[in-house]
Amino acid sequence: MKISRIARIGAVGAAAVLALAGCAANEGGTPEGSGEPSTSTLTGSVEATGASSQEAAQQAWVAAFQTTNPDTTVNYTATGSGTGRENFLAGSSNFIGSDRAFNAEEITAGGFGSCTSDEIVEIPVYISPVAVAFNLEGVDTLNLDGATIAGIFAGTITNWNDAAIADQNPDAELPDQAIVPVHRADASGTQETFTSYLEAVAPDVWTNEASDEWPLSTGEAADGTSGVVSAITNGVGYIGFADASQTADLGQVAVEVEGEYVPYSAEAASALVAASPLEEGRSAHDLAFAVDPAAAPAGSYPIALVSYLIGCVEYEDAEVATLVKSYFEYVASPEGQDVAAEAAGSAPISDDLREKVTAAIDAIVTE
User: Fold this and answer.
1) Cβ(304)–Cβ(128) under 8 Å?
2) Which of 225, 249, 270, 330 has the most CB within a 10 Å radius?
């Protein structure tokens, strides 16, 4: 089936962010421009680093939160998930964004320098499709199955008019041109999501284990989500993967699931996550999904990023603890999730998941 033009995810303007911020009922704050002074009692500042996939959502969350709580400062720097986790261990970030949760071995090892104990809070608050995006003159969309995507990134499919691509796209005018696959140079949760997909759906083609670090020497490496998007944008014949919120101006791949080619959308990504269980053996305040792309139900988009906010159960500074807890509560709220959906095209978490997330946030000690 030929997919028409895929709907693009657009970024929200500053006015829309502030309008949504006015809906946020956080700490009794009063929306900016209402003519009434804010009643928020929150003060202080926190430092955060991590997932570049969350960047658009974080900008919107921070703008709305600080509008409602004008005496607070939340500094979020998109360093990439791997660097964020390193910073949290080193104690230089009060909280982080990460495109994967800490694994069982890392949690057992502990040593979270940002915390006064080894108990952490991990909450899934950003669910978004990972787009397979390309730059090819005259082609806006392509249909590709998992084996073909794996072959492109493994380096076994090297030309755009290869039969594996052409047979799935009989109406596309594919050039006799080399394919240049782009991957992340830095350790990235988005990269781990993508390689997990390749490993799950095409193990005979992609023979590497899922990893946040790229396992091959082929292709072109780029720093961060913005680096990948920039490389594809500036390179005709290039293809790569990135959070869908930042690929709107590029060609898009509709991915085969159960015999149907599914374009990315927040709803289709959410359908994959909704069918996935939480990992067993974790505490009630450590919520990590076990997503299996090979089990993606019909109509779902099989490359879905579940990105987390990670903080401490106990902080040395009670003001920091209170601010982190309040920020997490806002992000997980219906208002916060709507702000992210408008800004980044992410899928709001369900009410059932929000109940678990809220209980996890309650574990943060503020006294």
Assistant:
1) yes
2) 225
Cβ-based neighbours of 291, under 8 Å, separated by 6 or more = 196, 272, 273, 276, 304, 306
Q: Which residues pair with 142 in a beta bridge?
A: 253
- Rounded Cα distance between 173 and 160, Å, is 10
Q: 58: which 2 tokens?
A: 């974080």
Say if strands 238-243 and 180-184 run parallel, antiparallel, or are unpaired.
parallel
Q: How far is CA 269 from CA 134, 225, 272, 296, 303, in A?
A: 20, 19, 5, 10, 7
**What span, in angstroms and rounded, lies between the C-alpha atoms of 156 and 158?**
6
Helix, strand counts (H, E) of the chain: 12, 11
pLDDT at 331: 98
Spatial neighbors of 268 by CB under 8 A, at least 6 apart, are: 129, 262, 299, 300, 301
CA proximity to 287, closest of 338, 359, 340, 347: 359
Report, as an integer, the average pLDDT of 160-179: 97
* Position 240, amino acid: G
Evaluate if residue 12 carries a pLDDT over 50: no
If we measure between CA atoms, which residue out of 162, 215, 172 comes closest to residue 192?
A: 215
pLDDT one-digit tens code per residue, 175-227: 999 999 999 999 888 899 999 999 999 999 999 999 999 999 989 999 989 99
Nearest to 68 by CA among 339, 362, 348, 356: 339
Predicted TM-score (pTM) of the model is 0.80
